[in-house]
Design goal:
Uridine Diphospho-n-acetylenolpyruvylglucosamine Reductase, domain 2; 56% helix; binds protoporphyrin IX containing FE; five-stranded mixed beta sheet; alpha+beta; globular
């Protein structure tokens, strides 16, 4: 094999040629997509099918354009070219069009399939039917109080083991992002599958790597025209290896549970495990009970849970560790509610300041500057009169809304008690809660596909924050400085290299 080439089934393939073909394909594909634009005004330049603007948006200009469009068009739709396709951004009244819109008009599934190329990463069964989302939404959310002791036990053990701090109270340098990812992967899988698998190094490594690799592979596949997707999917996606890796662990567990169910009949109900896998097995019908299909869905929930929660937590942690004056305020609240309720879901529910801190971090840093991406399945007219053709992509301008001074006072300022102050002066705790999705707080999306796992995510991240302020002292290695975020298009990734300092809290 020569440098710059790849041996594919015995044939020496020139990588430069492959990349050129892919790029040409992408250009043609993009040109075709340009025809799917609406009659809304364009931000940026239309030159080269909008590619110049699309490239600029990948390198930091996106948020300025979103904010300028928001200001200029006052909530009415405008459009911007992306690397993959043109996107129509809405705000104001038009958010309701998406929130109320049906799947046969504004499709969440088709948008996700286009964005992360699910057909070629997860495969058709998940791409075509995400019935497990209903299990997350119903059974998982309903059982959060009952599962809280397990979840908190895992938070406590995972931090102790992952941080491994000296007993003498000295500070220790911790790579924040990767450490939180390990903790979150363990904690989520404690709920999904229980012990001992949630602590298995190889199993959790597959889960953590899968999310990053599949997102990358999905993005690359999404850039190329349909006829190239199977080829690129085959050679660029690590998904099949991860799926096989998960199968090694999960298929024997699933088959054993099925066997016991068949043998024990009614008695199985008393004996069966109480975890997400079992809730899913109980809900599955017909072919859905196939072990391979259930395995894919377990990967699916790991995909939905791990990276999103890690980014959200790391953003909030950086605000806290760079602004340590906020720690005593949180500590005071956590000590009081834990003294009253113990480490329970009731205690977490009562942590109004912790909730506000996380919500403000999500408002300011978020994990991205747009929300509620949908593919338009039939020509439609938005409530501002914008005509949108079939095949177009629409999304909500989260950045514009979250930074609108008419909605949030001093919107560019990180004000951790922005929401708790209002609750403490008598306003509705539910209205201002981190988990409450609305047209003003778009972090969780909205409408019928609003994040199904947000109650668990919020509980987990609040409990992690509370645990840290109760048992550790923290600061950034570069004291008082919040590490820079990395923006990639509309995605806001917290710094992955930053070092935080932890020590056991002096009592
Ligand atoms: C902080 C962490 C999380 C964030 C920021 C987040 C964000 C989101 C967003 C923005 C959506 C799309 C909503 C829309 O377009 O309207 C979504 C959907 C979804 N999320 Fe989350 N999520 C998080 C954690 C989780 C967790 C822990 C789970 C599962 C255990 C989960 C499961 C899901 C599922 C199943 C959907 C699809 C819902 C549907 O198809 O109806 N998420 N999430």
């Amino acid at each position: 094999m020569t440098p710059g080439s790849l041996d594919v089934l015995g044939v020496n393939v020139d990588l430069t040629a492959v990349c050129t073909v892919l790029l040409m394909g992408a250009l043609l594909w993009h040109a075709w997509y340009s025809s799917s634009k609406a009659d809304a005004p364009i931000m940026g330049s239309n030159a080269l099918f909008g590619y110049l603007t699309a490239l600029k948006t990948q390198t930091g200009a996106m948020n300025d354009l979103l904010r300028a469009g928001y200001k200029q068009y006052k909530g009415r739709a405008f459009q911007l070219p992306g690397l993959r396709a043109w996107v129509i951004y809405v705000a104001g009244e038009q958010i309701q069009d998406l929130r109320k819109g049906r799947d046969d008009t504004f499709s969440f599934r088709e948008e996700v399939n286009d964005t992360v190329s699910m057909q070629y990463t997860f495969g058709p069964s998940i791409a075509n039917n995400q019935w497990h989302a209903a299990v997350v939404r119903k059974q998982m959310t309903a059982n959060l109080a009952a599962k809280f002791p397990d979840v908190y036990d895992e938070i406590s053990c995972a931090f102790a083991e992952e941080l491994d701090l000296p007993e003498n109270g000295d500070w220790k340098e911790i790579p924040a992002f990767n450490t939180f990812m390990s903790v979150i992967c363990r904690v989520s899988n404690r709920l999904f599958l229980g012990l001992p698998l949630c602590r298995d190094e190889e199993f959790t490594r597959i889960s953590r790597d899968f999310t990053v690799q599949v997102s990358m592979a999905g993005f690359i596949i999404s850039l190329v025209p349909p006829f190239l997707k199977p080829l690129v999917g085959r050679y660029f996606t690590p998904a099949p290896a991860a799926i096989r890796g998960f199968e090694k662990y999960l298929i024997p567990i699933i088959e054993e549970r099925k066997k016991q169910e068949a043998e024990l009949g009614e008695a199985w109900n008393e004996k069966k495990p109480f975890d997400f896998l079992q809730w899913m097995m109980d809900a599955a019908e017909g072919d859905q009970r196939e072990a391979k299909d259930l395995n894919l869905r377990m990967l699916g929930v790991n995909f939905a849970a791990t990276h999103t929660s890690t980014m959200t937590f790391t953003h909030a942690f950086y605000w806290l560790a760079a602004n340590t004056q906020y720690i005593p305020v949180l500590r005071e609240e956590v000590e009081a509610v834990v003294a009253e309720h113990g480490w329970t879901k009731d205690a977490v529910n009562a942590m109004v300041r912790v909730d506000s801190f996380l919500k403000e971090s999500a408002r300011v840093s978020g994990i991205g500057s747009v929300s509620m991406g949908r593919k338009v399945m039939r020509a439609v007219t938005l409530s501002d009169g914008t005509q949108v053709p079939k095949g177009a992509h629409v999304a909500v301008n989260l950045w514009g809304v979250h930074r609108d001074p008419k909605i949030y006072d001093n919107p560019d300022v990180f004000d951790p008690w922005r929401f708790s102050r209002r609750v403490e002066t008598g306003e509705s705790a539910v209205k201002h809660a981190f988990t409450t999705a609305s047209s003003d707080f778009l972090f969780w999306g909205g409408g019928s596909h609003v994040c199904a796992g947000r109650y668990f995510a919020s509980q987990e991240l609040k409990a992690m924050t509370a645990h840290i302020v109760m048992y550790y002292d923290i600061k950034m290695a570069n004291e008082g400085v919040r590490p820079e975020d990395t923006w990639f298009g509309t995605n806001c990734i917290p710094n992955r290299q930053a070092i935080a300092l932890f020590r056991k809290k002096h009592t």
